[in-house]
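haha ok so turns out i had the wrong file open the whole time. this is the CORRECT one, sorry everyone. sequence first:
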Amino acid sequence: MKEQLPASQDPKRKWLLWGIPLCAIMMISQLDRALSGNSRSWLYVFEWPFFAVFLYYMYWKLGQPEDYDDSSDPKRELED
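then structure:
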């Protein structure tokens, strides 16, 4: 059986934090495009911070301990 790592050391969720600076870079590049006259880029200027907040929320949510209670689930039996 595999030993479970603490949430602070889980490598599966740490990649989410790499997305936050990427979202900031994309927001800045879209802001530059919007200020130079591309009106469609204004939507993306406000969209990238929402993506960054969502990534942080997922990072936080995946770090929370999850209690699973299967006492109300029906038991299955294997058939021969």
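The first helix runs from residue 11 to 14.
again sry for the mixup
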